[in-house]
Structure formats: structure tokens, C-alpha cells
From TrEMBL:
<dbReference type="Pfam" id="PF02518">
    <property type="entry name" value="HATPase_c"/>
</dbReference>
<feature type="domain" description="Signal transduction histidine kinase subgroup 3 dimerisation and phosphoacceptor">
    <location>
        <begin position="179"/>
        <end position="245"/>
    </location>
</feature>
<keyword id="KW-0902">Two-component regulatory system</keyword>
<feature type="transmembrane region" description="Helical">
    <location>
        <begin position="71"/>
        <end position="89"/>
    </location>
</feature>
<keyword id="KW-0418">Kinase</keyword>
<feature type="domain" description="Histidine kinase/HSP90-like ATPase">
    <location>
        <begin position="288"/>
        <end position="376"/>
    </location>
</feature>
<dbReference type="Pfam" id="PF07730">
    <property type="entry name" value="HisKA_3"/>
</dbReference>
<feature type="transmembrane region" description="Helical">
    <location>
        <begin position="120"/>
        <end position="138"/>
    </location>
</feature>
<dbReference type="GO" id="GO:0000155">
    <property type="term" value="F:phosphorelay sensor kinase activity"/>
</dbReference>
<dbReference type="InterPro" id="IPR011712">
    <property type="entry name" value="Sig_transdc_His_kin_sub3_dim/P"/>
</dbReference>
<keyword id="KW-0808">Transferase</keyword>
<keyword id="KW-0597">Phosphoprotein</keyword>
<dbReference type="GO" id="GO:0005524">
    <property type="term" value="F:ATP binding"/>
</dbReference>
<keyword id="KW-1133">Transmembrane helix</keyword>
<keyword id="KW-0812">Transmembrane</keyword>
<dbReference type="GO" id="GO:0046983">
    <property type="term" value="F:protein dimerization activity"/>
</dbReference>
<keyword id="KW-0547">Nucleotide-binding</keyword>
Amino acid sequence: MVAVLSSVWEEPRPPDAPPIGRLDQLLAGGFAVAALVEGIVRPGLDWRPLVTVLALVLVPALSWRRQRPLTAAALGWGVAGILSALQLTANTGDLGLYSMAAVLVLLYSLARWGSGREVVAGLAFVTVVVALGMYAASAGWAELFGGVVLLLLVVALAAAFRYRADVSRRRQREIRNDERLSLARDLHDTVAHHVSAIAVQAQAGGVVAAAQPERAAEVLAAIEIEASRTLAEMRSMVRVLREEDAVDFAPQPGVADLPALARAHPSPTVEVVVDGSQHPLPGPVDAAIYRIAQESLTNAVRHARSATSVAIDVCREAGSVRLRVSDDGRTEPGPGPARGFGLRGMAERAELLGGSFSAGPGPDGGWVVEAVLPVEALS
């Protein structure tokens, strides 16, 4: 219980309170007109000018109710308390206008837009005012019960909308985080892949230019092709991020594109083996297999020492598909590839689809990456 009260006390104001708009102006103006008309035409109203002027104090309070919820509630309910005190001391009839029911809007705004401290302080003040009003009006138990229930309903309604908005904000933050991680994985798996190829070609180009100058043009052409692919990937991502209208998305690469991925890496030799009984995979699994294989191949090209071949094997098992990428590079002496963003991104792709992922030195040397992804649940 103490933890709950402490949590309520420390609750900040909601961050998305809208500014004063046309509807707020219409609400304040409509209340002013209603208060003036009632103050003029209502029969038997004691202290008519004073009551009408005090009621008009609620006009600015209705406009401030979201930006300054405690001030607005204190102002509106303070007017109600003053009228109850006057009624009690002067022994007059009811001094309130029916339009003063607008104080319920201020109570709603206090519970909806106020901080925890403001809500607690405001509700304590409203409780005192309501008790004073009930005493001044000599209200019976039925009226007391009805008034308390009405106030509790207003507060509960505000709390429900506040909670709903908070859940929506949290959901939006989760969606943004998921999209951010997805974009980071795509940037790493696509752009970084091409940049790695450019770096390898550039390193080889220095050797080729010195030993076989006539082949330098081939190396430069390969670098140009990879650079063009990188630029195209970047432009595609930027267009998707910047354009609000629908974008024609290119189909995601999949298992069928693995041979083309292998041909893009003449050194080391890349061999792709796909199980002949392979059925079409669900889109998310198909794309994940390709991206994990792509990143594994990039790591082999960049990190595997003295590697001459890389094997990419894809096979369908009972209710799942298994990807295995292995190279024949040396893993000793020294540690394997550092666990950077590449391995993390591959593991995240597998986990998001309910699969498993592992990476480490192979039993016969080299580095082995394995991913097992379920397909039956997504079919």
C-alpha cells in the first residue's frame, strides 16, 4: 500500500497535454454565456450580481485546465467554497448557479493532467469544499451518497483515460525501439556487407596493382559495383524513412538469392547447398536466413584468418529450417571474432522468430554459425 501511494505521489504530469485550442475557447465562451443568462433570468436568486461575477471566474479556469490543472481546480472549486461559506454565514438559500456544474470539468482535468502531488492536493481541497457545501445545504444521506459517487465517477473516468494514454505512449515507444533495432540490423547487414566487400577489394587492389597492373581495372570495377550497391541501399532506406506516402518496396532477398550472394565473393570460395526438398519459406524466415547468411559471410571474409572456403548449408527439418555457415580459417592462436553488432543482430533476428542461434569455433577448426528457425507457426 505504501508503494502504491508513493507511486501516485511521484507520478509526473502527462507529457502530451494539448495546448489551448478552439474547443477550449468554445467551452469557456459557452459557459460564460450560460452563466450570464442564468444569472439574469433565474428567479429567486439571492445576491444575483455577486453570484454571477464569481461564476464568471471559472471562464479562465476552463481555459487553463490542462496547462495548470491544480490552479484551475483550486480557482473553480474555491469559488464554490466561497458561495457555500456565504450561504452558511448569511443563512440564505442556494447561491450557486446550475452552470457551476462546470467545476466537474476542472476536477476531471485535475485527475487527467495533473502530477501526483497536484492530484492529491487538489482532491484534498475538493473534499473540503464538498463537505462544506453539503453542510451548508443540510444535505441528507442520499444526497451525500449521490454527490460522492458522482465525484468518484469523474475521477475514475479521468484515471481510466490517463491510464489508456500512458499505455498507448508505452506501446509507441516499444514500436519505435523495435523499428530502430530493425533499421540498425538492416544497415549493418546490407550497407556494412557492401562496405566490407569494398575494403577487401581495395586491400587486394594494392597487391594486384603492384604484381599485375593489367588487373587493376578489374579490381576498380568491382569496387565501383559494390559502391553503387551501397549507395542504392542507402537511398532506398532514406526514401522509406522520409516519404510519408506509400512506397513501392522491393521484395526482401531470401534463400533463392544465396547463390548470387556467393558469386559476389570470389575469394574465399563460397559454396551454397540448399536442401532439394526445400519448400517455400514464410517471408520473415526466408529473409532472416538470407540476412544471417550474409552477415556470417561478411564476418568470414573480414575475420577468418587464411580462410580459403566458406560453406553455406540450408536444410529443412521437422517444422524448422537450419542454416549453417562455416569456414576453414584458423581460430588459433587468438580469440574468434569479437561479439559486436553483427552477432547481436543475427541473434536478435533468430530470437524474434522464436528460433535459436549459436556462433563459435568449429570442432575441426574455422568458425561456425548456426541458426534454427521454426516455420510451421508462421506458415
